[in-house]
Amino acid sequence: MSAQARKPVSIGLIELNSIAVGIETGDAMLKAAYVNLLRASTICPGKYIVLVYGAVDAVRASVQAGRECGAENVVDHLIIPSVHPEVIPAIAAATEVEVVNAIGVIETFSAASSIVAADFAAKAADIQLIEIRLANGIGGKSFVVMTGEIAAVQASVAAGEAHPRGQGLLLKSVVIASPHEDLKDAIL
Hints:
Blueprint: E1 10-16, H1 19-32, E2 36-43, E3 47-54, H2 56-70, E4 74-80, H3 87-91, E5 102-108, H4 111-124, E6 127-134, E7 142-148, H5 150-166, E8 170-176, H6 181-187
Antiparallel strand pairs: 1-3, 1-4, 2-3, 5-7, 5-8, 6-7
Helix pairs in contact: 1-2, 4-5
Protein backbone atom coordinates (compact mmCIF):
# COMPACT_ATOMS: atom_id res chain seq x y z
CA MET A 1 0.00 0.00 0.00
CA SER A 2 1.35 3.40 -0.90
CA ALA A 3 2.11 5.98 1.79
CA GLN A 4 -0.52 8.22 0.23
CA ALA A 5 -3.22 5.52 0.51
CA ARG A 6 -2.36 4.68 4.12
CA LYS A 7 -4.22 6.91 6.58
CA PRO A 8 -2.73 7.55 9.99
CA VAL A 9 -4.23 5.33 12.65
CA SER A 10 -4.71 6.39 16.23
CA ILE A 11 -4.60 4.03 19.20
CA GLY A 12 -6.18 4.45 22.62
CA LEU A 13 -6.00 2.45 25.84
CA ILE A 14 -7.75 2.49 29.19
CA GLU A 15 -6.25 0.44 32.05
CA LEU A 16 -8.51 -0.22 35.05
CA ASN A 17 -8.15 -1.79 38.48
CA SER A 18 -11.58 -3.49 38.26
CA ILE A 19 -12.41 -6.27 35.82
CA ALA A 20 -16.17 -5.68 36.07
CA VAL A 21 -15.81 -1.94 35.48
CA GLY A 22 -13.31 -2.71 32.73
CA ILE A 23 -15.89 -4.73 30.81
CA GLU A 24 -18.47 -1.98 31.28
CA THR A 25 -15.90 0.61 30.17
CA GLY A 26 -15.09 -1.36 27.03
CA ASP A 27 -18.77 -1.36 26.12
CA ALA A 28 -19.01 2.39 26.69
CA MET A 29 -15.91 3.02 24.58
CA LEU A 30 -17.20 0.97 21.65
CA LYS A 31 -20.61 2.66 21.78
CA ALA A 32 -19.13 6.18 22.00
CA ALA A 33 -17.41 6.23 18.61
CA TYR A 34 -16.62 4.13 15.57
CA VAL A 35 -13.40 2.41 16.69
CA ASN A 36 -11.97 -1.06 16.26
CA LEU A 37 -11.38 -3.20 19.33
CA LEU A 38 -7.84 -4.55 19.38
CA ARG A 39 -7.94 -6.04 22.86
CA ALA A 40 -10.23 -6.16 25.88
CA SER A 41 -8.89 -8.52 28.52
CA THR A 42 -7.54 -9.06 31.97
CA ILE A 43 -3.90 -8.34 32.63
CA CYS A 44 -1.78 -8.98 35.68
CA PRO A 45 -2.19 -8.27 38.53
CA GLY A 46 -6.00 -8.44 38.33
CA LYS A 47 -6.45 -5.40 36.09
CA TYR A 48 -8.34 -4.97 32.82
CA ILE A 49 -7.39 -3.14 29.62
CA VAL A 50 -9.41 -1.92 26.67
CA LEU A 51 -7.36 -1.10 23.58
CA VAL A 52 -8.96 0.48 20.51
CA TYR A 53 -7.77 1.95 17.23
CA GLY A 54 -9.20 4.04 14.41
CA ALA A 55 -9.44 7.64 13.32
CA VAL A 56 -7.96 10.08 15.82
CA ASP A 57 -11.21 11.89 16.68
CA ALA A 58 -13.03 8.60 17.18
CA VAL A 59 -10.27 7.25 19.42
CA ARG A 60 -10.26 10.45 21.47
CA ALA A 61 -14.05 10.25 21.92
CA SER A 62 -13.83 6.56 22.82
CA VAL A 63 -11.08 7.08 25.41
CA GLN A 64 -12.93 10.06 26.90
CA ALA A 65 -16.06 7.90 27.28
CA GLY A 66 -13.89 5.18 28.85
CA ARG A 67 -12.36 7.60 31.34
CA GLU A 68 -15.81 8.86 32.32
CA CYS A 69 -17.27 5.37 32.68
CA GLY A 70 -14.24 3.96 34.52
CA ALA A 71 -13.95 7.05 36.75
CA GLU A 72 -11.94 6.23 39.90
CA ASN A 73 -11.12 2.74 38.57
CA VAL A 74 -8.95 4.13 35.73
CA VAL A 75 -5.30 3.43 36.49
CA ASP A 76 -3.82 4.75 33.26
CA HIS A 77 -4.79 5.72 29.74
CA LEU A 78 -3.14 6.76 26.51
CA ILE A 79 -3.88 8.15 23.09
CA ILE A 80 -1.29 8.05 20.32
CA PRO A 81 -2.73 10.14 17.46
CA SER A 82 -0.57 8.67 14.69
CA VAL A 83 0.77 5.35 15.87
CA HIS A 84 3.55 3.65 13.90
CA PRO A 85 2.00 1.03 11.56
CA GLU A 86 3.95 -1.82 13.19
CA VAL A 87 2.57 -1.24 16.69
CA ILE A 88 -0.87 -2.79 16.19
CA PRO A 89 0.40 -6.04 14.60
CA ALA A 90 3.08 -6.30 17.32
CA ILE A 91 0.41 -6.04 20.05
CA ALA A 92 -1.62 -8.72 18.27
CA ALA A 93 1.53 -10.89 17.94
CA ALA A 94 0.91 -10.97 14.19
CA THR A 95 4.20 -9.55 12.97
CA GLU A 96 5.92 -11.46 10.18
CA VAL A 97 9.67 -11.30 10.69
CA GLU A 98 11.90 -12.81 8.04
CA VAL A 99 15.35 -11.94 9.39
CA VAL A 100 16.42 -11.40 12.98
CA ASN A 101 19.59 -9.35 13.31
CA ALA A 102 20.33 -7.51 16.55
CA ILE A 103 17.61 -7.74 19.19
CA GLY A 104 16.41 -4.93 21.44
CA VAL A 105 14.15 -5.36 24.45
CA ILE A 106 12.48 -2.65 26.54
CA GLU A 107 10.80 -3.85 29.75
CA THR A 108 8.35 -1.58 31.59
CA PHE A 109 6.09 -1.62 34.62
CA SER A 110 2.85 -0.87 32.72
CA ALA A 111 0.99 -1.76 29.55
CA ALA A 112 0.56 1.86 28.46
CA SER A 113 4.24 2.72 28.88
CA SER A 114 5.24 -0.30 26.80
CA ILE A 115 3.02 0.77 23.89
CA VAL A 116 4.43 4.29 23.98
CA ALA A 117 7.98 2.90 24.15
CA ALA A 118 7.30 0.71 21.09
CA ASP A 119 5.87 3.63 19.13
CA PHE A 120 8.86 5.87 19.94
CA ALA A 121 11.29 3.05 19.12
CA ALA A 122 9.67 2.26 15.78
CA LYS A 123 9.66 5.93 14.77
CA ALA A 124 13.30 6.50 15.77
CA ALA A 125 15.12 4.20 13.36
CA ASP A 126 14.70 1.46 10.77
CA ILE A 127 13.82 -1.48 13.02
CA GLN A 128 11.05 -4.05 12.98
CA LEU A 129 8.84 -4.62 15.99
CA ILE A 130 8.51 -8.31 16.78
CA GLU A 131 6.15 -8.23 19.76
CA ILE A 132 4.61 -6.01 22.40
CA ARG A 133 3.64 -8.21 25.35
CA LEU A 134 1.11 -6.48 27.59
CA ALA A 135 1.24 -7.56 31.23
CA ASN A 136 -0.30 -10.97 30.69
CA GLY A 137 1.13 -13.62 32.99
CA ILE A 138 4.21 -11.54 33.86
CA GLY A 139 3.23 -9.77 37.06
CA GLY A 140 1.91 -6.59 35.46
CA LYS A 141 5.08 -5.84 33.54
CA SER A 142 5.17 -5.41 29.76
CA PHE A 143 7.90 -5.57 27.17
CA VAL A 144 8.76 -4.73 23.57
CA VAL A 145 11.02 -6.85 21.35
CA MET A 146 12.50 -5.46 18.13
CA THR A 147 15.12 -6.37 15.54
CA GLY A 148 17.27 -4.61 12.96
CA GLU A 149 20.82 -3.57 12.32
CA ILE A 150 22.75 -2.97 15.55
CA ALA A 151 22.98 0.83 15.24
CA ALA A 152 19.26 1.13 14.45
CA VAL A 153 18.30 -1.11 17.38
CA GLN A 154 20.53 0.89 19.73
CA ALA A 155 18.96 4.17 18.58
CA SER A 156 15.43 2.74 18.83
CA VAL A 157 15.96 1.32 22.32
CA ALA A 158 17.36 4.67 23.49
CA ALA A 159 14.36 6.53 22.03
CA GLY A 160 11.87 3.97 23.32
CA GLU A 161 13.10 3.91 26.89
CA ALA A 162 12.97 7.71 27.31
CA HIS A 163 9.22 8.00 28.00
CA PRO A 164 8.92 5.16 30.56
CA ARG A 165 12.16 6.29 32.24
CA GLY A 166 10.74 9.80 32.64
CA GLN A 167 7.67 8.36 34.34
CA GLY A 168 9.61 5.97 36.56
CA LEU A 169 8.17 2.99 34.62
CA LEU A 170 11.31 1.67 32.89
CA LEU A 171 12.49 -1.60 34.39
CA LYS A 172 15.32 -2.57 32.03
CA SER A 173 16.42 -2.47 28.41
CA VAL A 174 18.99 -4.55 26.55
CA VAL A 175 20.49 -4.76 23.08
CA ILE A 176 21.93 -8.07 21.88
CA ALA A 177 24.23 -7.47 18.91
CA SER A 178 24.55 -11.07 17.67
CA PRO A 179 21.86 -13.27 19.20
CA HIS A 180 22.29 -17.06 19.22
CA GLU A 181 20.27 -18.84 16.50
CA ASP A 182 18.21 -20.73 19.11
CA LEU A 183 17.25 -17.43 20.74
CA LYS A 184 16.21 -16.02 17.38
CA ASP A 185 13.91 -19.01 16.87
CA ALA A 186 12.50 -18.68 20.38
CA ILE A 187 11.43 -15.04 20.01
CA LEU A 188 9.66 -15.61 16.70
